[in-house]
Amino acid sequence: MKTIRQIADELGVSKQAVHQKRKSKELSTALQPFTSTIDGVIYIDVDGEAIIKSAFSSSIRKHVDDSFSSTIDDLFTPVDDQKVLYDILKTELAIKNEQIATLQSELAAERQHSREQSDKLAILAEQAQMLHAGTIKKQLTDGEQPDEEEAVKKKGFFGFFRK
Fold first, then answer.
1. Distance of CA 66 to CAs 75, 159, 161, Å?
2. Are 42 and 33 in contact (CB under 8 A)?
3. Among 3, 20, 40, 136, which is least packed, fewest CB within 10 Å?
4. Structurally, how many domains does the chain consist of?
5. Residue 42: strand pairing partners
6. 22 within some domain
7. Do 42 and 5 contact (CB within 8 A), yes or no?
8. Extended beta strands in 15-137, E state
9. Could you tell me which residues are beta bridge partners of residue 35?
10. What's the CA dihedral at 68, 70, 75, 80 to 10 degrees?
11. How far is 72 from 69, CA to CA, in rounded Å?
12. What mean pLDDT, rounded, does the chain reach?
């Protein structure tokens, strides 16, 4: 025969846990023939001890199974969620890559258009320069010589003394 404390120590639980298990509905009637009280100390014989130990081992096993099950669920549920997230991110990345490719082709087209406009402006500037040079040359060849009076006026007052 063993005391509640001895059984609790063997199971690695508290004395109160053994008392609660002993008083539970499922064990109280089953343990009654295997318990005795001597000088205020409760003693449980070998058969009662086996019943208590099996009750604890089944509850521990159930707790371990529940913990293991929830741990397994925690391990595998996020994998499913991660796969969904991975698929979403993969799709979004493909869309972004298409957008980048489109923007790059638009940018290349804009650059080509800008180069064409720069070339046209250079040609127009060159034509304007040639036109201006042609106008000046025409004026000189047409015999439009500035008058002497105008030259004197342009020289100013001191230009008169320089002759």
1. 14, 116, 121
2. no
3. 40
4. 1
5. 37
6. yes
7. no
8. 35-38, 41-44
9. 44
10. 140
11. 5
12. 78
